[in-house]
UniProtKB/TrEMBL annotation:
UniProt cross-references to Pfam families, sorted A to Z: MFS_2
Native source organism of the sequence: Propionibacterium cyclohexanicum
Keywords tagged on the record: Membrane, Transmembrane, Transmembrane helix
Membrane-spanning intervals of the chain: 12-39, 45-67, 88-109, 115-138, 159-177, 189-210, 239-267, 273-295, 307-323, 329-352, 380-399, 411-434
GO cellular component, one term: plasma membrane
Protein name: Sugar (Glycoside-Pentoside-Hexuronide) transporter
Key word Isomerase present: no
GO molecular function: symporter activity
GO biological process assignments: carbohydrate transport; sodium ion transport
InterPro entries for the chain: MFS_2, MFS_trans_sf, Na/Gal_symport
Length: 450
């Protein structure tokens, strides 16, 4: 069986991965939230050029999603004095920080040159970020042998990520303005702000290398082959059920994909989405911190099923209540953030349980390829959300400059309420067949088979 290095106390490891997750979240939030704004408002790309940028981003995301399992396999086959995951945490930090800065440092040049520059940087950034993200989640699953400690660490990581999301979303425009030359925000100001934030964020991320220790195989154990890893992966039924249930539940994230557009159609300004986004973040933070307490009274499988059913009911009631009362809408959105936060914690917990179970049954621990599916499903859920919301925007007839009608408002409101309701309800089915579940906290630190 695997050995566990205990030279670093669990509380230090937990604090380190939480701070590391906070730093890492600054990177992903900055890129996903502000890259298009930067290119439009500060690089001044044309409409035709933005169409090319959209194609580049879409192609890169598809490539990025497909590269996750490949990266997971590479991680699982790695053998070093630092383990199999920590080396990638160490050596990916600088490239991620540098490439994130490069994305916001498009040179003043002909647009063709700018597009080529952006395309190369964005693809390279995606590869580097995958190299830092997959092993990060893997080391969390490996560092804590006690499920209760692991669940608490995961919940705190998710909470820190949500807080980081809010800090970056609200703070980066202000920071860019502060570092700009003159009274208005400039492209140079964005470059400096992103550079400082990226290198600081990845500096914090390195704590996941410095202060964690992963479970490693005894000396002399044969290296895992690609065939063994893939075979064990496809036979890990509990893990595959988590992936299926997560993908079907893509509607949970549709408000993030389309909330800003809905705010424009329903309330006349995308600024309303600031309050909507804040409500989601507050709900997610509360849920992430509360989930370990809930796990004292029910298994992770039961909590996933019950929270998904509650979310489906919540979205249905939200639709019936309508969107005319903005304060009431924010209350519903905050509750939906609670459901989303619970899902994000339990999803990682269920994957970790599946990895532990596979190790008990086969003697093989494949953290890399297993946790790569966490990032893969996250990207797939986001892609499905964008696709479905985009299709419903077309159905509604809305486009820039269009006269807003009640039909448009109703269709887009249904897209962020009824679609998630149906999605959450259907996602329960795979989770019902998940045979493993972290037991109700009892101090034994083991997993039970339902």
């Amino acid at each position: 069986m695997d050995l566990v290095h205990t030279s670093v106390p669990a509380r230090i490891q937990a604090l380190s991965v939480v701070i590391a997750g906070f730093g890492q979240s600054i990177i992903i939030t900055t890129v996903t939230t502000f890259i298009l704004v930067y290119l439009l408002e500060y690089v001044h790309l044309s409409v035709a050029a933005m169409a090319v940028v959209t194609s580049i981003i879409t192609a890169a995301k598809v490539f990025d999603a497909l590269s996750d399992p490949i990266m997971g396999t590479i991680v699982d086959r790695t053998r070093s004095r630092w383990g199999k995951m920590r080396p990638y945490i160490l050596f990916s930090a600088l490239p991620v920080a540098g490439l994130t800065t490069a994305l916001f440092a498009v040179p003043q040049a002909p647009q063709t040159t700018q597009l080529v520059y952006f395309g190369i940087c964005f693809f390279a950034w995606g590869i580097a970020y995958t190299a830092c993200d997959v092993p990060y989640w893997g080391v969390i699953g490996s560092a804590f042998s006690d499920p209760a400690q692991r669940n608490k660490a995961i919940s705190q990581v998710r909470a820190a990520g949500s807080i980081s999301l809010g800090v970056a979303t609200l703070g980066m425009p202000w920071f860019a303005a502060l570092l700009s030359d003159g009274p208005t925000t400039t492209a140079h100001g964005w470059t400096l702000a992103v550079a400082v934030s990226s290198f600081a964020g990845m500096g914090l991320y390195l704590l996941a290398f410095v202060n964690t220790r992963e479970r490693t195989r005894p000396d002399g154990t044969a290296a895992l082959t690609f065939r063994i890893l893939v075979t064990n992966f496809v036979h890990n039924t509990p893990l595959l059920l988590v992936l299926l249930g997560s993908t079907i539940g893509f509607g949970r994230s549709i408000i993030q994909a389309g909330g800003a557009v809905f705010a424009v159609v329903a309330y006349g300004s995308e600024k309303s989405f600031t309050a909507i986004g804040a409500a989601v973040i507050v709900g997610m933070v509360v849920a992430a911190l509360a989930t370990p307490l809930l796990l004292r009274h029910m298994t992770s499988k039961d909590l996933m099923i019950r929270s998904s059913l509650a979310a489906a009911l919540l979205y249905l009631v939200m639709f019936l209540a309508g969107f005319q009362n903005f304060a009431l809408l924010l209350a519903f959105v905050a509750l939906s953030g609670v459901a989303l936060g619970i899902f994000m914690v339990i999803q990682v917990t269920l994957i970790a349980d599946a990895v532990d179970d596979m190790e008990r049954r086969t003697g093989i621990r494949n953290d890399g390829i297993s946790f790569s599916t966490l990032t893969f499903t996250g990207k797939l859920m986001n892609a499905l959300s964008v696709m479905v919301f985009g299709a419903l925007v077309v159905v509604s007839g809305y486009h820039s400059g269009a006269q807003i009608t009640r039909h448009m408002q109703n269709v887009l409101f249904a897209s962020i309420t009824l679609v998630p309701a149906a999605s959450c309800l259907l996602s329960v089915v795979p989770f019902c067949f998940y045979r493993l579940s972290t037991p109700v906290a009892s101090g034994n630190g083991s997993s039970a088979t339902a």
